[in-house]
Design a protein that fits this description.
Strand order of the largest sheet: 1-2
Strand content: 5-15%
Helix content: 55-70%
Number of strands: 2
Radius of gyration: 20 Å
Order of helices and strands: HHHHEEHHHH
CATH topology of the largest domain: Arc Repressor Mutant, subunit A
Amino acid sequence: MAKGAESFRYFILGLLAQQEMSGYDIKRFLESLGWLVGNPSFGSIYPALHALLEDGLVTVEVVSRPDKPPRKIYAITKAGEQALQDWVAEPATIGSSRKAFVMQMILVGDFSQTGVIAHLQQRRETVVANHLALEQTIQGMGDRASLGQQLALEYGLTTAGAELTWLDSTLAQMSSDPGSDRLGTAT
């Protein structure tokens, strides 16, 4: 299974750990986070739910409704809770995407502050490595880069720089206030 598909599958499992949902409920929720985690179609949500069901990580209850089609409500199982815990606890790898990082961060509510800090530090390592790789690519291309390539690489450097600024600020704030589970929000 592709890493992105696996992350998405576990993200759905995490949503079901928070509350029972139908495929439509999941789709609606994901639409509200579209910019951060993408906006998957029903064509990716239902196969993920079906795979989770086949693996015994979720159950489904068909709820009859008057004058409407029945509704399938999915709920996480004990095995699903364990699988989710294992996935969320996995360290981020250097190649992990921003999307996978955001999905894990949305689900780390039960982590200790130390666990969240560890995830943020691992993400920082990933972003530093990506930033360095972009700088090396830019140096290697020199004047041969097309305008589109230059703009894309500059965008990547700027995005990585902004993420590093946020990570450093968040890590400093969390480290200076070890008892807090809330951060000041950006305005």
